[in-house]
Amino acid sequence: MSTLNHLGLALLSAALLTACNTQAQNEPLSGNASASQVTIEGVPGGVTTQVEEISAVVSAIDPAKRSFTLEDAQGHRRSFTAGPEMINFPQLKVGDKVNATVAVEQVVYLREPGAASEDGAAGLVATAPAGSKPGLLVADTIEVTAVVKAIDSKRHTATLEFADGTRKTVQVRPDVQLKDEYLNSQVVIRLSSALAIRVEPQ
Q1: Residue 94 CB-half CA count within 13 A
Q2: 20 pLDDT exceeds 70?
Q3: pTM for this prediction
Q4: How far is CA 95 from CA 26, 44, 56, 102, 130, in A?
Q5: Long-range contact list for 24-27, CB < 8 A, 24+ apart?
């Protein structure tokens, strides 16, 4: 369900933008990414985890605009405007190393019949203590449920209906046998994302 991965990354991007507003005309910073997937053969759903680590150096600071520019090892540059929650902006110096870790986990499973269903979200934002180097931890979890409304065994797809009435047809893994008993079952999609930013002095 790659669409859900994009949703997770969108949630993560929204969390990042809470801390720093990105200027337009910038290059993406490069990083090291890894992904893993855990499934049980024949059982619908599974767990997918994606982690990206980015390291860059502060190459410019504009105190009047509360903006700073990061540059990675490949020379890509990206500018940010520090939001009000970045209370330690004055401690940021040119040459400081910034390490960011982004993790997104997607859990998908069929809910047991009769189990309570609750769509919802939770979040956390933590900043470094006043006077120390800037740092940030943002974590978000969102849970969405959908109902299996149709199964197409020829195309090996299932059509899910969400609480707002929208429908989405998704590809089902080849090892999962599509059964009529899955019709009207609830599918739970839980996306958890976390962003940690640490600044090391030059």
Answers
A1: 5
A2: no
A3: 0.69
A4: 19, 49, 9, 22, 21
A5: 26/77, 26/78, 26/79, 27/76, 27/77, 27/78
